[in-house]
């Protein structure tokens, strides 16, 4: 395997030295309790950096700073000034794309191509919502009862937003959690996942450099069970924006109810990807591979249940296995690697347990189903691309989110059957359909109970398209106009004119 340290750029090496502090009220500070945790490189399981582990005392300081910044001026800042600052931050993130990409590759194991693509999307995302800062407005309202009354609505920011992120594309999700709330005039207390705090802290340096007033953005680091809970139960936080698992999302909803905080929850999925016999298989098969193996399967919207019409099932299966077996696993900083490790030892063990259970349920493991037998990879959290057949929707590997490179393939015989089976899940995040028949495509679009339906391509996401989790995949929407409106409240005004 390529020597990691040789590949790390100088700025990243400097950044990794020393103890990483939190960003509160415009200053870099240690945790009040002085405790530290270690960030681990999943490629080697060696320590990458030491980071302060905050608790409710740090959250309280951050919330107080965010409240002061909000009331002290940020909520009334001219929208074009907010746009300018967000555009400045986007420029700085773009100038530091290599560093941010490397930090994410080092900390969660995404390949340079994937982590770099996500980091570039973070830049687009910041610019996208910088644009919306100057385009939010209310409406004039004609009253149903008539009369000499002037009525209108206006949009106002919510206040202090507690933003909590997942580890699977850290820099991008951090920017998702900053851009819309800041553009709408809110202040932010941001908590990255404990496994992946580094790129968020690096972006914190860029927030400082961009010139955001102190307290507008605060970054606290630490465990979900302690720091996350302190955020969701803090009485002076107005909204929680969360990306993570459904289990934790439910807990957040419960805690947020104490003070009726507004919430946006982007949660897990077990998304169906469906290949009809009339599809262009030269596109559908590689598309199905990307749908499951991109980011080592650690994507909320991963196409982890692949339904294939029976007449093309064997052909699709053969091609899938061929591509999966050609995948090059390796150090994510090596440009030749197509797939890196999973984020942590715990995550590989989770994947192993699911595959073990699948075996007990009678699965036929077509390829993978184990860690690679390559001495160069044995220190890291690597797992082979895995394709499983012979299970149905009653099996755990088919109905639960695995969050690893494990694809279940399932044959089907009719459109009615596949609609019912695709929807037979508690999740409803995304779905894919591969067909050349317009009627089939539209029938599926109407019938799939998922927030996103992608036809003849997978991961057709864009800043302008809202991302919504149906059923237990979420509450509210992120991205698009809906994504920024979720960080505003509508005030209604009625003036009696005499
Ligand atoms: P996770 O739920 O374990 O953790 C997410 C965040 O919540 C972390 O910052 C964690 O520290 C924090 N947290 C944990 N317990 C908490 C608590 N009790 N109170 C407050 N915060 C707490 O998720 P993860 O393992 O980091 O990420 C993977 C999950 O995220 C998957 O389920 C995936 O589907 C989901 N995800 C969803 C989207 C989406 O847009 N829908 C995007 C990416 C990931």
From TrEMBL:
Keyword Oxidoreductase part of the UniProt annotation: yes
Active-site residues per Swiss-Prot or TrEMBL entry: 266
Family: Belongs to the aldehyde dehydrogenase family.
EC number: 1.2.1.8
Domain (Aldehyde dehydrogenase): residue spans on this chain: 28-493
Keywords: Oxidoreductase
MF annotations from Gene Ontology: betaine-aldehyde dehydrogenase (NAD+) activity
Protein's name according to its UniProt entry: Betaine aldehyde dehydrogenase
Natural source organism: Solibacillus isronensis B3W22
The keyword Metal-binding is assigned to this record: no
EC main group: oxidoreductase
Taxonomy, superkingdom: Bacteria
């Amino acid at each position: 395997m390529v020597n990691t340290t040789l590949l790390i750029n100088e700025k990243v090496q400097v950044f990794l030295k020393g103890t990483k502090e939190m960003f509160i009220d415009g200053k870099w500070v240690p945790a009040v309790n002085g405790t530290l945790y270690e960030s681990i490189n999943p490629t080697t399981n060696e320590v990458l950096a030491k980071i302060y582990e905050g608790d409710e005392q740090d959250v309280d300081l951050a919330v107080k700073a965010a409240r002061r910044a909000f009331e002290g001026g940020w909520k009334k800042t001219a929208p074009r000034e907010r746009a300018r600052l967000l555009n400045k931050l986007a420029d700085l993130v773009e100038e530091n794309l290599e560093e941010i990409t490397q930090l994410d590759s080092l900390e969660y194991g995404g390949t340079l191509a994937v982590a770099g693509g996500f980091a570039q999307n973070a830049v687009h995302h910041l610019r996208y919502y910088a644009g919306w800062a100057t385009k939010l407005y209310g409406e004039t309202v004609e009253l149903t009862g008539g009369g000499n009354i002037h009525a209108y609505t206006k949009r106002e920011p919510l206040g202090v937003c507690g933003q909590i992120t997942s580890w699977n594309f850290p820099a991008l999700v951090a920017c998702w959690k900053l851009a819309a709330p800041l553009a709408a005039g809110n202040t932010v207390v941001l908590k990255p996942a404990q496994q992946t705090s580094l790129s968020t802290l690096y972006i914190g340096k860029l927030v400082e450099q961009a010139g955001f007033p102190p307290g507008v953005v605060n970054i606290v680091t630490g465990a979900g069970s302690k720091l996350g809970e302190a955020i969701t139960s803090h009485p002076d936080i107005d909204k929680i924006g969360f990306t993570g698992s459904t289990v934790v999302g439910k807990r957040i909803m419960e805690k947020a109810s104490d003070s009726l905080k507004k919430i946006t929850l982007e949660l897990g999925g077990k998304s169906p990807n469906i290949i009809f016999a009339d599809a262009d298989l030269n596109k559908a098969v590689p598309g199905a591979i990307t749908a499951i193996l991109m980011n080592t399967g650690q994507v909320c919207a991963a196409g982890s249940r692949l339904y294939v019409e029976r007449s093309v099932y064997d052909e699709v299966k053969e091609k899938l296995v061929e591509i999966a077996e050609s995948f090059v696993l390796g150090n994510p900083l090596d440009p030749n690697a197509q797939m890196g490790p999973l984020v942590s030892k715990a995550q590989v063990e989770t994947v192993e347990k699911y595959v073990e259970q699948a075996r007990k349920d009678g699965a036929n493991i077509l390829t993978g189903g184990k860690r690679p037998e390559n001495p160069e990879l044995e220190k890291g959290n690597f797992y082979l691309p895995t394709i499983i057949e012979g299970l149905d929707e009653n099996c755990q590997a088919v109905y639960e989110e695995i969050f690893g490179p494990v694809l279940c393939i399932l044959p089907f015989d009719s459109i009615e059957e596949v609609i019912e089976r695709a929807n037979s899940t508690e999740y409803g995040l995304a779905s894919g359909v591969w067909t050349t028949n317009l009627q089939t495509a539209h029938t599926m679009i109407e019938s799939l109970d998922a927030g996103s339906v992608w036809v003849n391509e997978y991961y057709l996401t864009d800043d302008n398209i809202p991302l919504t989790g149906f059923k237990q995949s979420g509450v509210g929407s992120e991205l698009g106009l809906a994504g920024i409106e979720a960080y505003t409240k509508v005030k209604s005004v009625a003036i009696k004119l005499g």
